[in-house]
Amino acid sequence: MKSADCSDIADTVANDPLVGLSRRVMQQVYFIYAVRQFKTPLVIKMASLCLIVICMTVWVSLGDVFMNLYSTTGIVGTPKFLYSAFMDTDWSVEVLSSLIFVLAVWVLYDFARSLISHMHFLGHIGRLEPHKA
Question: Mean pLDDT over all residues of the chain?
């Protein structure tokens, strides 16, 4: 008998126009929330960074760069290799490399600032006094 009762309730809920309306409204609310989250500056910077890295792979074989990087003479040779590789490349790769570096530093700065802000906020939550009437 319980299964018949449950199916009756399910049929009633499925055919109720208010339930369908509330689902459509909530889908729109979730969509708007997702769009707003994607419009935050940090997400835009991260997407730009990823797009530039993908564009960079058109001109540069990153696998070869890393293989050559491993063949350098230890830690001392790595900065020399990176400087030489940067200076002896096309201007388009230099521009994209510079953009990647600037955006990466900017994203890290924003992330650290956001993290510090949240930690500061969480620190104040524990010290809040209850409201006295």
Answer: 79
What pLDDT digit, counting tens, does each position of 76-97 carry? 778 888 888 888 888 888 898 8
b/e per residue 57-67 (b: at least 16 CB within 10 A): eeebeeeeeee
Label residue 122 exposed, middle or buried (CB < 10 Å: 0-12, 13-18, 19+). exposed
Q: Which residue has the tokens 């500056």?
A: 41
* Residue 132 CB burial class (10 angstroms; 0-12, 13-18, ≥19): exposed
Digit-coded pLDDT (tens) for 97-113: 899 999 999 989 988 88
